[in-house]
Amino acid sequence: MKVLLTGATGYIGSAVTDHLTAAGHQVVALTRGAEPQPGRGWHAQVVGDTADPASLAGAVTPDIEAVVHLAPPSGDADVDTAVIEALAAPLRGTGRPFVYTSGVWVLGATGEAQDIGEEAPVNPIDIVGYRPQIEQRVLAEVAEGVRAVVVRPGIVYGRGGGIPAILVDRARQQEAPEYYGEAGVRWPTVHVDDLAELFVAAVERAGAGTVWHGVGESAVPVRDLARAAGRAAGLLAAPRAVPLERAAEVFGPLFAGALALDQSVSGGAARTVLGWRPERPGPVAELVSGSYRPVEVFGAPDGPETDAEVAAIRRLVAEVEHAQQNELVDRFLGVFRREDPVWTTGHGKRLSGFEEIETFTRKVLPGAMAESTAVYDVERVLFLRPDVAVVNVRQQPVRPDGSRIADRPEGRPFYVLVKEDGTWRVGAAQNTVVAD
Ligand SMILES: NC(=O)c1ccc[n+]([C@@H]2O[C@H](COP(=O)([O-])OP(=O)(O)OC[C@H]3O[C@@H](n4cnc5c(N)ncnc54)[C@H](OP(=O)(O)O)[C@@H]3O)[C@@H](O)[C@H]2O)c1
């Protein structure tokens, strides 16, 4: 389909462009400026400004087979209503899709209710005050023969952007991770690439008049996100609560209120009905060892294939950390290659072969993490061959609550990884304690 996309230069719009294009559609980007933007993957570009609905008059030409409206609200309900009119009117009587982007904030605080669905009544917080009206205005287009659809994303993460990037920046500036409002606040979240796939599904097959929650994880504790954002900023410290009044001074009262909003929202309907599969890593993993923490990579070309290998390697190192922190002997052993692995510990003990590693781990790991454990961050990956990688890791000692143990030295583990049968495993490992 030829799809007119507003907000195509933005965070979500960039991912939606990629996934629409990958699914064989052509994106016609509506941009405010006329200057060409090569490299974005657009089929064509038209100029228009949603602050000036009259400027959209010619955007939906007869060859446009779908409209995805991602540009943000203007702040004026009348202007936004006129924008819907301008973009939807040319589709009337065609049955073509018009997909409007709202957000889960229209649901307000969800309180005791868990995993609420699309049938729940709206209760918008101030920052999205009139947005439910715009949703209704969009859905009213069904009566005019438009396949009108509303998507409500949760808090979007991934590709190093979105609101989680604000948490990382703030942690860096304040030298401490922060969350806002009450300790029990939870956010529904969605990976930007998963969300983009939901937009593709909505364009291709969502029924007229339907509303979909674009939510991968229904209620992620914001304290966990803050801790992970701290780690992305290189900080190992317990997150601190910033009272709402203080957050309002930093972000303004409307956005602060949204950050402090507690919600539990389900994206189950889109999975069941549209076959949507949001399977990318969750926001905590993404912050700790994903796109918010660039890694130095050598020996492989830039591109999605290398990114995927690096992501898989980081998952392996995250598995080392998880297995060690939780004293999971079998999972720890699972990271090693079966054939002749070698591991030299930080104390210089060389374990040669799987059996020696297994015997040592079964003896040493259980009970070892009661008072102190460690976090592992991949810093450098060198691909010696496409299936052999040397990985430099920074290991920092932490207490079970994740805070840094100041008087313990760091380690610098070094792994030689081998990819066999599609899976990266440790063939050789050596740890060196950093002497100050
Ligand atoms: N990010 C989230 O977590 C999240 C969650 C739920 C819902 N949403 C909703 O999703 C939509 C997209 O969000 P986003 O995070 O991708 O935002 P974003 O990164 O700020 O991108 C906004 C996009 O809209 C365009 N735009 C802004 N004002 C415009 C105007 N007056 N006329 C035409 N285009 C205009 C921008 O173009 P320029 O290049 O010209 O600036 C940009 O392409 C918004 O409606 C937002 O409320 C976002």
From TrEMBL:
It comes from the Bacteria. SUPFAM superfamilies: NAD(P)-binding Rossmann-fold domains, NTF2-like. One of its GO terms (molecular function) is aldehyde dehydrogenase (NAD+) activity. Residues 3-206 form the NAD-dependent epimerase/dehydratase domain. Gene3D superfamilies: 3.10.450.50, NAD(P)-binding Rossmann-like Domain. This is SgcJ/EcaC family oxidoreductase. It comes from Kitasatospora sp. CMC57. The lineage of its organism: Bacteria, Bacillati, Actinomycetota, Actinomycetes, Kitasatosporales. GO terms for cellular component: cytoplasm. Residues 313-426 form the DUF4440 domain. It holds the Pfam family Epimerase.
